[in-house]
Amino acid sequence: MRKLVYYIGVTLDGRIAGPDGQADFFPVGDEAQAASYADGVNALYPETVPAGLRTAAGLDGVPRRRFDTVLMGGATYRLAADAGLTSPYPHLRQYVVSATLAGGGAADPAVTVVPGDPVGLVRRLKREGADGALDLWLCGGGRLAGALLPEIDELVVKSYPVIAGAGLPVVDGAFDPTAFEAAERTAFPNGVTLTRLLRR
């Protein structure tokens, strides 16, 4: 069965963005460090690079390695849409879980808006793939991650060496201690640590 993988960048205090969704404060280092970091994570997860950056990253035509489907909350989708990316991941099947967007739909026919029941959606998507099928990527946000915590099989956490002080939490839900175990960890020259964790 396919896995649901929450692949996300976080600050040292567990924020995935600032209070208004900003992410421009995440440090990436100097030009050489930033390039080394981008090359490293893009080689591992090329599907996670959005449409507007794929050509510059040399990822046009690169086959999918890990994911064929992306799920995101309404706020995460709106950030992309406001930047002109109404279909931010056209190389993947795209689902937006949002009651507020459900009435008018998404601005792009390649994006499927689901008004509720994210757990039911994920369970259906997990079952439709045969053994060896690519996994599902949860790219944000924190409220959707909180709702889907029972279904998250794996975390891939990019930990940035910065404290936000306030902002959107990596998981925003009820108190539900859930154990994960580190499977591998990679440190990059810019101070970012990429950790893959499996649900216990």
CATH class: Alpha Beta
> Order of strands side by side in the largest beta sheet?
5-4-3-6-1-7-10-9
| Alpha-carbon Rg, integer | 16 Å
Number of structural units classed as domains = 1
What is the distance, rounded to the nearest whole angstrom, between the alpha carbons of the first and last residues?
A: 17 Å
- The whole-number mean of residue pLDDT values reads 94
Specify the helix fraction band: 10-25%
Protein name: Dihydrofolate reductase family protein
Domain Bacterial bifunctional deaminase-reductase C-terminal: 3-193
InterPro entries: DHFR-like_dom_sf, RibDG_C, Riboflavin_Biosynth_HTPR
Pfam families: RibD_C
Describe the structure.
Residues 3-193 form the Bacterial bifunctional deaminase-reductase C-terminal domain. This is Dihydrofolate reductase family protein. The protein is α/β, with parallel strands linked by helices. The chain has a single domain, classed as 3-Layer(aba) Sandwich (Dihydrofolate Reductase, subunit A). The chain has six helices and ten strands. It has helices at 31-44, 51-54, 74-82, 99-102, 118-128, 142-148, and strands spanning 4-10, 15-17, 67-73, 93-97, 111-114, 135-140, 154-159, 168-169, 180-187, 193-199. The chain has an eight-stranded mixed β-sheet with strand order 5-4-3-6-1-7-10-9. It has a two-stranded antiparallel sheet with strand order 2-8. Strand 9 and strand 10 (193-199) form a beta hairpin. The longest helix has 14 residues, at 31-44. The protein starts with a strand and ends with a strand. The mean pLDDT is 94.
